[in-house]
Amino acid sequence: MGTVAKGPDGVTLERLAGETVTQLHALRLRLLVQQESNRIIHEQVEELDLSVVQARSLCWLALLAEAHEEQASDAEQRGNMEQAMGWFADAMRLRDVIQLVSSIEIPLPEEIPLPHHSEHEHFGEDMPHLK
C-alpha cells in the first residue's frame, strides 16, 4: 500500500486540496454574482423585464438540476453511494427551487400594447378572424 501524505495536523493533503477547490469555487461564484448584480443595478429599470429574468432563471435551474442528476447517476455507477446521494439531494433541492421560481407571479406591465383592430379583424395579413 502507498502512504498517504498528511499535513501537520494529520489532515490528508487530498482533503485539503478538495477544501481549497471548494473555497475557490465559492469565491468565484460570489464574484460572478456580485458582477451580475452590479450589471443589473446599472441597467435602466425599464429595460429589465422580470418575466424574461424568471424564464432565463428557470432554464438555467433546469440545466443545473439535470447536470446534478447525471453526476448522481455517474457516482452510483462507480459505486460511490454517498456521493450519489449528495448529488441527488442537490438535484432535488434545485427542483424545489424551480417550483418556487415558477410559482412567482410577475405583474404585467401597466401598459400592454394591444393589436390594432381593423373593421375586418384580421389575425395576420391574410388570415381573417373567425367569429
Features:
131 residues; mainly alpha; flat
Describe this structure in words.
- The chain has two domains: 39 residues; 57 residues.
- Helix 2 runs antiparallel to helix 3.
- It has three helices and no strands.
- Helix content is 62%, strand content 0%.
- By secondary structure, the chain is mainly alpha-helical.
- The C terminus is likely disordered.
- The relative contact order is 0.06.
Mean pLDDT: 79
Regions with pLDDT < 50 over 5+ consecutive residues? 120-124, 126-131
The Rg value, from CA coordinates, equals 25 Å
Q: What is the 3D shape?
A: flat
Assembly type: single chain
Report the order of strands and helices: HHH
- Structural domain count: 2
**Structural class by helix and strand composition:** mainly alpha
- Beta strand count: 0
In percent, how much strand structure appears in the residues?
Answer: under 5%
The helicity comes to 55-70%
Straight-line N-to-C gap: 83 Å
Main beta sheet: none
Tally of alpha and pi helices: 3
Question: Which helices and strands appear, and what pairs or packs with what?
Answer:
Elements: H1 13-42, H2 50-77, H3 81-103
Helix pairs in contact: 2-3
Q: How would you briefly describe this protein structure?
A:
This protein has 131 residues and is mainly alpha-helical.
